[in-house]
């Protein structure tokens, strides 16, 4: 793991550890889903809300299966960092957990269900998470790699993959920094 990856993985861990307890648990994933639903104004009992909660549950299960090395129902920073760089792409890998959650998050942010994320849709979520309007705009323009004014699921996924496998020269993954504001 290089220094850039370590810094990014630490930021991911801190983001996932919503209560700041030093370990990630199921309740952290539930809180993340609730934050997105609140930021997007999604009705709590809607099909989109149920899908998001289901994806976050699956994401937690994949993370727990891959990284809860002592079986205590919590993933510590040490456990997380020891497993996140694992090249395993299987059903119960940390990468799989991030992908499952990322896809559901994309769909939740896409408030009008047109299959893309607009600038306003992304800004609404990032500002609620603590990013400035400028950080949200920078993130949007970095994620919109084809410059069509919208972020596709493929662009979102490519940015996450770039962020995940970062090297010191990487710039595409930097677009996700506002997510962890």
| Record field, number of beta strands | 4
Question: Which shape, going by the Cα principal axes?
Answer: globular
Instruction: Please give the CATH architecture.
Output: Orthogonal Bundle
CATH C-level label: Mainly Alpha
Radius of gyration, whole Å: 15 Å
Helix/strand order: HEHHEHHEHHEH
Tally of structural domains: 1
| Biggest sheet architecture | 2 strands, antiparallel
Side by side, the strands of the main sheet go 1-2
Count of helix runs:
8
Organism: Actinocorallia herbida
Protein name: Ca2+-binding EF-hand superfamily protein
InterPro entries: CML21-like, EF-hand-dom_pair, EF_Hand_1_Ca_BS, EF_hand_dom
GO molecular function: calcium ion binding
What keyword list fits this structure?
181 residues, Recoverin, domain 1, two-stranded antiparallel sheet, 59% helix, globular, calcium ion binding, EF_Hand_1_Ca_BS
Any overview of this molecule?
The chain is mainly alpha-helical and about 180 residues long. It has a single domain (about 5-175), classed as EF-hand (Recoverin, domain 1, Orthogonal Bundle), CATH 1.10.238. Helices cover about 60% and strands about 5% of the residues. The protein contains eight helices and four strands, in the order αβααβααβααβα. The longest helix is centred in the first third of the chain and has 21 residues, at about 45-65. This is Ca2+-binding EF-hand superfamily protein.
């Amino acid at each position: 793991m290089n220094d850039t990856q370590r810094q990014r993985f630490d930021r991911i861990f801190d983001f996932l550890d919503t209560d700041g307890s030093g370990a990630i648990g199921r309740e952290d994933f539930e809180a993340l889903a609730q934050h997105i639903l609140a930021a997007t104004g999604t009705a709590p009992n809607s099909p989109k809300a149920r899908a998001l909660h289901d994806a976050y549950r699956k994401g937690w299960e994949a993370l727990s299966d891959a990284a809860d090395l002592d079986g205590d129902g919590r993933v510590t920073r040490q456990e997380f960092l020891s497993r996140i760089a694992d090249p395993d792409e299987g059903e119960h890998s940390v990468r799989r957990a991030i992908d499952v959650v990322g896809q559901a998050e994309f769909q939740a942010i896409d408030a009008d269900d047109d299959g893309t994320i607009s600038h306003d849709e992304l800004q609404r979520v990032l500002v609620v998470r603590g990013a400035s309007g400028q950080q949200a705009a920078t993130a949007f323009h970095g994620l919109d790699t084809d410059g069509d004014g919208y972020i596709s699921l493929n662009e979102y996924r490519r940015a996450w993959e770039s962020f995940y496998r970062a090297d010191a020269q990487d710039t595409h993954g930097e677009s996700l920094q506002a997510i962890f504001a």
